[in-house]
Amino acid sequence: MGTAIITLLIAILAVFATVSTLKNKNYLGFLFALATVLVFGFFSIMTLIKSAYPEG
């Protein structure tokens, strides 16, 4: 559960990085930040869903 929370925090920080790179017109940084948001966001959300709602 701790890993999911940490990766969710990384995804939230990457959202701020994505906005910042767009303001600075740094397109390569934007691609990396967007990829980070997608990967870490997906991983954290799916981990929270699997561990927070056990099968019944």
| N→C terminal distance | 19 Å
The helix/strand class is mainly alpha
Q: Care to count the β-strands? A: 0
The coarse silhouette is elongated
Rg from Cα: 13 Å
- Compressed to H and E, one letter per element, the order equals HH
**How many separate domains?**
1
Stretches with pLDDT under 50, minimum 5 residues: none
Q: What does it look like?
A:
This protein is mainly α. The chain has one domain. It has 2 helices and no strands. Helix 1 runs antiparallel to helix 2 (27-52). The two termini are 19 Å apart.
Layout of SSEs?
Blueprint: H1 2-23, H2 27-52
Helix pairs in contact: 1-2
Offer a concise description of the structure.
InterPro entries: DUF2759. By secondary structure, this protein is mainly alpha-helical.
